[in-house]
Amino acid sequence: MKNFLTFFYHFLKDPKEVGAVVPLSKVTSKEMIKHYLKRDKRQPCRILEVGAGIGNISNEILLSLSPKDHFDIVEINHAYYKVLTKSFKSHPQVSVHNLSILNWSPAYTYHYIISTLPLNSFDVDIVEDVFEHYEALIEVGGVLSYVEYAGLQRLTEIFTNRKNREKMDKRRKFLKNIQDEFMIEKTLIWRNFLPCHIYHLILKPLPDCELKLNVQA
Length: 217
Prior knowledge:
By secondary structure, the chain is of the alpha/beta class.
């Protein structure tokens, strides 16, 4: 309950940084990491979570870590960083970092990236920078999974001015282009507050590998 109240307080303080009123549900968390769960557990794996909040998805990942896996968490909010550091201090495979993802440049790349950044709260130039950075951080054939609340941007457009609607339209078009080119799966999750879409993308497809799209309503 204490961690939940911490999460809610920081949403009220800075909704653009946090992006959600409450943490993601267990069903949503499992959907976010479904491709990681399907991996070959005999092979060492590196996984990155961006915007972990109080660690709902992080805890699901922790349950599935293989002995040689490495798990990095990048969280810009310092209060959440302290919660995460306390939660995972006894787990040597987990490293928690307090900075913007755009400033995170490790000497290695990741097989899986899990992102809960509130992309629909950012200007399109920042969203472009984020995806460019994800592309630099991901392995060839690696999977990026991110979340977007269903219908929230369309609803927001009704109550905003023309200038903001134009910004939203540019951001939506950019994300649509990314999805059209790289998306392998899209799932609508109703058992979450609010309902959300989960997107799974391969930003660096394997050579001669044709991406197959799976959309679940």
